[in-house]
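Re: your question about Putative secreted protein

S., sorry for the slow reply, the queue was backed up all week. Below is exactly what I fed in.
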Amino acid sequence: MNFQANFVLVLGLICGLGFAEQEGRISQEKCRHMQNVTEVALPTDTDATQSTVNGLQVNTICCVPEAQCTSRKPLQGKSVGWFYDTKQQACSMYRLGESCNLTTNHFLSCVQCEETCLGLEAEKAQERCGHYD
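Result:
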């Protein structure tokens, strides 16, 4: 493998395992770069960082892959999670299992995901999520 292939593999592992936040800002920037995302500043009323994904303003905690689950045996109580899907430009559902490596891109509801990732008001997030709560 050449250097670029090794670099892509290592970054994929870092992002996929949810280590981007623990490794600091550099790893998150590399992760965003791998997903073709550019960073922009938020309005002054908040200090969170957002990025542009296909023209949408997206909170950078949502720019990492969803949880990777090695077991499909459902968790007790809650069997689905939500993540921001940069390809769909919306929050999507995934099945939680006992052995999931959760990332910052994990939410308990569609509304929570839309509010956090896109900065939508609760009413607009509920409208986009429909009957999914």
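The longest helix spans residues 3-16. Residues 3-129 form one domain.

Happy to talk it through on Thursday.
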